[in-house]
């Protein structure tokens, strides 16, 4: 691997302008494809094979008009007025009639028909809108016309807000994400003390993530894609792109200072640091691509989209970056920042902060180890209380129409009206379909719900749908229990009425998805931990180093999940982190966190421990190897972790709660894994293990293949470089 990367680096040096031009062509081509082929992104989630999805599929065949999505146009009269006033009633009824004629709408029931007017002052009600297609397939023209009719009601002096999954705001890139990039630039300036090497990682990262993001956008025209997928790819691609370039530039710059020729230095940097980048990028790619084993389509697409962007970032780091370094030549430090440059030299020496910290940790290894484990254990306490859910309109940005409609319904009708359940009754074989459906309704009314609507039949009365209003919100545990109770009672309902029932609707769909993800979580953890043991055994030819790395990964993962539960489920510091709705954790967040954090944890493990292994192989002193290896790797790993944390944290304060919670979890996970586990517990454990850290049975040593991680390149006509 190192020999190939060495030759690739030398080629990029000789043909720098060709390489740069080739990447520009790819970037322009992807931009063109994105503009011409892009499709519509959705904020909906579905999993084929779940009970709720099976019921929807059945409705699509037997009752097509009831299988589409739905929305609500919430109307509120001014203070001192009522929806029952004749003038207001005419306005609302006329709008309901117009909504029923909108292309893509199969029906619209006014508050007076559906009896959806709040008690008391009768100020608030909502028009129920039924679509011909699922929420994610409702066209923009249909939604625009509905918004236009809502605007006419506002012009008449009424408050009107449109809610429903079809009107949810897709995840967008906002202004707060740029803060993370600004912090990353500051970190790079501090690390390099010079402008050009600080900007090169940012430039190459933007090229890589731009190509990846545009490619995903182009594919959205052919693949049904959730709106979170490109944002996740952007988040991860930007972070790893900057980090990978940082490692290569750092190695090249150090070799230039030692007097090495530019071309040779680029080749060697690509062979050494580039080898580590390829290995690290491969681990991240495998972890993200492994999300497909969960067999949940939208999660598979998200994982593969992010994994593809990571691969592009790796290719950019080992091809485009060497070409740009060749263009810079010996002028790489032509724009120094004197103050930062002096600080950099002081920090990087044998008496720098990294060296002092390594000395402290190795001298006080047992107390440090105990203290670190206590901190991680305390942070992990909330983790077993994890409760999964999916975002509803209550998690939308404050001030959005869908959030306003959600709050109006919850405040005036109750939380359950925002998460109605749809019970589909198959009436084939019943002697009296109407009587059977009414009997089903009566049984459902006895399950402790707020309301049960009258049955609605298809044309031949072979299928009926019955809307059930829970007494709790969509993501509450009581609602999940209610869905399970109805399903458990399906057998007795069939025996008593002759009808076969199924529970569906957005709330039931989300409950099923969360349940599927919860079941997949332990399996995915085992796959990832097992993968880490195998990869690191290949890399370091040791048994204890991989075991230590896997245990550290699990500890940082549990602590990160504990922090997410405390903030997003229990509501601790919710105001500080702009948490719109607490009580649950995004259902696919733990699996995503496992995949991403695993890859990044292995990155830092490789960059730190590979240098310790190199030092140990030179002189055989395990304690000196830990201290020297840590001193050489700590500064770059610290900068890389700070950049990762900055990029992820930039998404925390955005408007979309789904993206914000992902950013928080990833930022916290990297913070704990990089600084508490890799930079503290790893040197303490390595010092404690001593020579036994590198023990490997002879029979296993013969079996394991040799993996070249930051190894020496083998150029054809130049002396072999030293890693």
Description:
- With 723 residues, the chain is an alpha+beta fold.
- It has helices at residues 2-14, 16-37, 51-62, 86-100, 111-114, 140-155, 177-192, 195-219, 228-257, 262-289, 297-318, 320-328, 338-347, 353-363, 365-379, 401-412, 433-445, 477-488, 490-497, 506-540, 544-569, 589-619, 622-649, 657-689, 698-703, and strands spanning 70-76, 105-109, 124-131, 159-163, 388-389, 421-426, 451-452, 456-457, 463-469, 500-504, 585-586.
- A hairpin with a 5-residue loop joins β8 and β9.
- α1 (2-14) packs across α2 (16-37), α15 (365-379) runs antiparallel to α24 and α22 runs parallel beside α24 (657-689).
- InterPro entries: MMPL_dom, Mycobact_MmpL, SSD.
- Keywords: Cell membrane, Membrane, Transmembrane, Transmembrane helix.
- Its main location: membrane.
- Belongs to the resistance-nodulation-cell division (RND) (TC 2.A.6) family. MmpL subfamily.
Shape: elongated
Q: Oligomerization state of this entry?
A: single chain
Question: In percent, how much strand structure appears in the residues?
Answer: 5-15%
What does the main sheet amount to?
Answer: 5 strands, antiparallel
Distance from first to last alpha carbon: 14 Å
Mean pLDDT: 85
Give the class from helix and strand content and strand pairing.
alpha+beta
Low-confidence segments, given as residue ranges, are: 712-723
DSSP strand count: 11
Family: Belongs to the resistance-nodulation-cell division (RND) (TC 2.A.6) family. MmpL subfamily.
InterPro entries: MMPL_dom, Mycobact_MmpL, SSD
Organism: Actinocatenispora comari
Pfam families: MMPL (PF03176)
């Amino acid at each position: 691997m190192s020999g190939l990367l060495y030759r690739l680096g030398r080629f990029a040096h000789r043909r720098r302008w060709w390489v740069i031009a080739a990447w520009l062509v790819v970037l322009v081509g992807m931009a063109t494809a994105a503009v011409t082929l892009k499709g519509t992104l959705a904020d909906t989630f579905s999993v084929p094979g779940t009970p709720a999805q099976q019921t929807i599929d059945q409705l699509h065949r037997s009752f097509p008009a009831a299988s589409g999505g739905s929305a609500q146009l919430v109307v509120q009269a001014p203070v001192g007025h009522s929806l029952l006033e004749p003038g207001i009633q005419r306005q609302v009824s006329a709008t309901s009639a117009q909504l029923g004629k909108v292309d893509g709408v199969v029906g619209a029931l006014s508050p007076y028909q559906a009896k959806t007017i709040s008690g008391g002052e009768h100020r608030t009600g909502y028009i129920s809108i039924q679509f011909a297609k699922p929420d994610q397939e409702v066209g923009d023209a249909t939604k625009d016309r509905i918004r236009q009719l809502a605007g006419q009601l506002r012009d008449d002096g009424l408050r009107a807000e449109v809610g429903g999954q079809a009107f949810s705001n897709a995840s967008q890139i906002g202004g707060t994400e740029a803060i993370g990039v600004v912090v990353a630039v500051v970190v790079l300036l501090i690390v390099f003390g010079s402008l050009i090497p600080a900007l090169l990682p940012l430039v190459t990262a933007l090229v890589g993530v731009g190509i990846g993001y545009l490619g995903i956008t182009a594919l959205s025209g052919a693949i049904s894609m959730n709106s979170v997928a490109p944002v996740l790819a952007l988040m991860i691609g930007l972070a790893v792109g900057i980090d990978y370039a940082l490692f290569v530039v750092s190695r090249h710059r150090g070799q230039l200072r030692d007097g090495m020729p530019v071309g040779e230095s680029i080749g060697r940097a690509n062979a050494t640091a580039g080898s580590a980048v390829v290995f690290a990028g491969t681990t991240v790619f495998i972890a993200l691509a492994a999300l497909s084993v969960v067999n949940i389509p939208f999660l598979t697409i998200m994982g593969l989209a992010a994994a593809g962007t990571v691969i592009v970032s790796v290719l950019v780091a080992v091809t485009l970056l060497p070409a740009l370094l060749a263009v810079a030549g010996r002028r790489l430090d032509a724009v120094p920042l004197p103050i930062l440059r002096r600080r950099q030299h002081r920090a990087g020496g044998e008496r720098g902060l990294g060296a002092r910290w390594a000395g402290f940790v190795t001298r006080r290894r047992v107390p440090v180890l105990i203290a670190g484990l206590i901190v991680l254990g305390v942070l992990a306490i909330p983790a077993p209380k994890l409760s999964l859910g999916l975002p509803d309109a209550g998690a939308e940005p404050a001030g959005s129409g869908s959030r306003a409609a959600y709050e109006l319904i919850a405040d005036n009708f109750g939380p359950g009206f925002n998460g109605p359940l749809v019970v589909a009754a198959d009436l084939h074989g019943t002697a009296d379909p109407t009587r059977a459906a009414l009997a089903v309704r009566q049984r459902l009314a006895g399950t402790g719900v707020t309301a049960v609507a009258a049955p609605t039949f298809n044309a031949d009365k072979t299928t009926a749908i019955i809307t059930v209003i829970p007494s709790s919100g969509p993501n509450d545990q009581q609602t999940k229990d209610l869905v399970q109770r109805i399903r458990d009672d399906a057998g007795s309902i069939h025996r008593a009425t002759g009808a076969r029932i199924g529970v569906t609707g957005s709330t039931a769909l989300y409950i099923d998805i969360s349940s599927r993800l919860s079941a997949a979580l332990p399996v995915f953890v085992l796959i990832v931990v097992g993968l880490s043991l195998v990869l690191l055994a290949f890399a370091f030819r040791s048994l204890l180093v991989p075991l230590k790395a896997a245990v550290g990964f699990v500890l940082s993962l549990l602590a990160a999940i504990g922090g997410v539960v405390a903030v997003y489920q229990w509501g601790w510091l919710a105001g500080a982190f702009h948490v719109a709705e607490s009580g649950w954790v995004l259902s696919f967040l733990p699996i995503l966190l496992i995949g991403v954090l695993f890859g990044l944890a292995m990155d830092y493990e490789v960059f730190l421990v590979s240098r310790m292994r190199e030092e140990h192989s030179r002189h055989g002193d395990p304690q000196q190897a830990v201290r020297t290896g840590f001193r050489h790797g700590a500064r770059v790993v610290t900068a890389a972790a700070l950049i990762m944390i900055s990029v992820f944290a930039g998404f925390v304060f955005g408007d979309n709660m789904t993206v914000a919670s992902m950013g928080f979890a990833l930022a916290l996970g990297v913070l704990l894994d990089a600084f508490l586990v890799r930079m503290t517990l790893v040197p303490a454990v390595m010092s404690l293990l001593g020579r036994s850290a590198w023990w490997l049975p002879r029979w296993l040593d013969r079996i394991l293949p040799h993996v070249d991680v930051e190894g020496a390149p083998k150029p054809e006509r130049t002396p072999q470089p030293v890693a």
